[in-house]
Amino acid sequence: MTKAEQVGLAWEKAYMRGDYSSIEELLHPDYLCFDHRMGMEVDFEAEKSLVKTVSQFLTLSTLKILYENDDVMVGLVFSKYKEAPPRFMASMITGHFKDEKLFRNEIVREVLDYDPAEIQDWNWEDYE
């Protein structure tokens, strides 16, 4: 399993099960995340608090790795918000590694006007 795949599965475990043990092992001590939609940079403890708040309202797809090398990973993940009607979002995630740990994460999100599962080879039920 590649480093990016490990990161993706660990975040999925954190979001969907509230288990942060796997992602904590993969993070650099100086880890920071910048979320462009919110316009803020946060450390892991603040990000964990945000994840705990929003995770109960959404379902995440698996992170699709678009590119990876020893220094950088780029991935795409879709979200379905449990609203009526449901709201969908695409998130492009860029991770930078330092000392083989995730050091910086940047996230760009976009609200979608369609259900991404309709054009993918998976269903939301696979992730609920």
Structural write-up:
The longest helix has 15 residues, at about 5-15. The model has no long low-confidence stretch (mean pLDDT about 90). The chain has one domain: Nuclear Transport Factor 2, Chain: A (Roll), CATH 3.10.450.50. The protein is built from three helices and seven strands. The radius of gyration is 14 Å and the shape is globular. It has about 130 residues and is an alpha+beta fold. Strands 1, 2, 3, 4, 5, 6 and 7 form a seven-stranded mixed beta sheet that branches. It has helices at about 5-15, 20-25, 45-55, and strands spanning about 25-35, 40, 60, 65-70, 70-80, 85-100, 100-110. Helices cover about 25% and strands about 40% of the residues.
Write the layout of secondary structure elements.
Blueprint: H1 3-17, H2 21-26, E1 27-35, E2 40-42, H3 44-54, E3 58-60, E4 64-68, E5 72-81, E6 87-98, E7 101-112
Parallel strand pairs: 1-7
Antiparallel strand pairs: 1-2, 3-5, 4-5, 5-6, 6-7
Could you give the count of β-strands?
7
Based on helices, strands and strand pairing, what is the structural class? Answer: alpha+beta
**Strand percentage, roughly?**
35-45%
CATH class assignment: Alpha Beta
H/E element order: HHEEHEEEEE
Distance between the termini: 23 Å
Helical stretch tally: 3
Number of domains: 1
- CATH architecture type: Roll
Describe the sheet with the most strands. 7 strands, mixed
